[in-house]
Protein: Bifunctional phosphoglucose/phosphomannose isomerase
Amino acid sequence: MLEHYMKWYEYSLEALGYTVVNARFFDGIRRIVILGMGGSGIVGDIIASIAAESEYPVYVYKDFYIPSNIIDGTTFVLSISYSGNTLETILSTKKALQHTKSVGVIASGGELIELAKRNGLPYIAIRSGLAPRSALPIMLVAAFNLLSTCGIELIAREELMKALDVLKNMDEAERTSRELFNFLKLSKLPLVVATLRYSALAVRIKNELNENSKIPVKVEILPELFHNDIVGWESAEFKDKALLVDSDLTYENKLIQFYAEYLKGLGIDTYILRLNGNVIERFLYGSLVIGITSIKLAQLRGLDPLQTKSISIYKQLLQELKEEIGRVAHSR
Structure:
């Protein structure tokens, strides 16, 4: 699985060349709703963060349905499911189609692609055969590609191509990964801290450690954490390690540094993941580093990073509940 992370730059360039089937221009779009779960859903979180200063507000929904009161004629819905068979995303997409035909799809195949074909929706069929979490740059680039082709440009193609260059520096990524590996190798329940602007990266770090390394993780976002989490450590009986993600804003880094010093004063080991470049470059590089780190942590623990037994058990339960969930989702 490690080899797939090492090919992120190659995969990204491949995704730049994907064709949007049923491509057409959507006029009058004023907001975007992104549907997806897990390794596909995090793509929506990252896009929402990157688009925070664009003209389009981006909302991300990770459930079996999408609230009908947020969909109107000015809404574009983007459904992302690597497999194309994620029940939550399929049901949410069907719900969205009750209210609008301004829907796009990104998947490697499965029911979601068939749904796009039947309804004449714009879609991109991406490379198959990967774990969804290791296909992050493919889905991210494909998402920007589809949106731009449909007249919704969140980032200029030239800016996107420049940002992808950060994935070429594998020597630096592996060096940072070694540092992070040594910091986390004995951790039982690490704390991950980031600013709101980088909350999606904090969640990505958590998810990679969860799925690849099989390590539970606690995530806290500042400045909100200064109104609750900071107090929780005053008499904490359990202390592990804290990984803090730095920012591109000076005042946010001062807050990060303050919390790192506060935690160290309580006997908690801290590590600040220092990133460079603009927002998308930081998301890409940070995701690459934690991906490599999480695989090596799994190897250290004698675990298969690809195997996710608990998710398989959950999916078996979904098959039993599929009809019931479908009825409820349809009526929402």
